[in-house]
Known about the structure:
The chain is α/β, with parallel strands linked by helices. The chain has eight helices and nine strands. A seven-stranded parallel sheet has the order 1-2-3-4-5-6-7. A two-stranded antiparallel ribbon has the order 8-9.
Amino acid sequence: MIISDFHTHTYFSSDSKSDPEDMIKAAIQLGLKKYCFTDHMDYKYPHPDFGPFVFDPEEYFKTLLVLKEKYKDQIEIMIGIELGLRNEPDLKDEIYDHYKKLTEKYPFDFVIGSTHVLDHYDPYLKDYWKTRTGNDGIREYFQSIALNAKFYDMFQIYGHLDYIVRYIPDDIKQYHVADYKDEIDQMLTSIIENGKGIECNTSGYKYGLGVTHPKKEVLKRYRELGGELITIGSDGHKPEHIAYDFHKAEELLKELGFQYYAVYKERKPEFIKL
Length: 274
């Protein structure tokens, strides 16, 4: 049994309304032993109508440290963050400096780096796809991850590597990993060579895609290239999302030859046998 969920969101994220205490209670009820909050910090998010995707770190720690103490005898709470990484030349230096200062100032246990925005657009929006084909959009997304994994040094795990497939045009909704072999190899090699890992994110099950993020073939290739560092997260935004279909993730990782998954405390990994 997987005993930890290391990718979750609360009302500190613009796309969630969930109370942190309700998330903890749900995690306890599910029998989890470790639980990590990783609320969104997407500095310079370009679509204000969808929310700023930033929060006050002081208030974040004030709130979560109280809950950490309150529930310490029932579950171990970690305080993390999910940083929205950007590769636009006009922004990346400013964003790097902002995140560097943030992660040096605050004692996050765990830092996820994720790509939610590419070329000043969230692929969630149709505007992103107006100037590129679906295939080009996917290639550019994977290429940006390869560059971000090398450029940003303040995170441990790259989140939901093929997040973009949730939003690609309907005509190629089921993307084929083999069509992007070179880009995926470049992405995974960059992650591994720069001392970072990936996550097995079960939100693809939640969204009805029938797969994890990334897909089985990408997880397999990560392992073939020597990747071993992997965390497991639901990307849950509601209590009912916590540990979503973790039994499927466990079966999948074992099938692919993974023997351990990682949890983090004070940004240092601990490996737990699957």
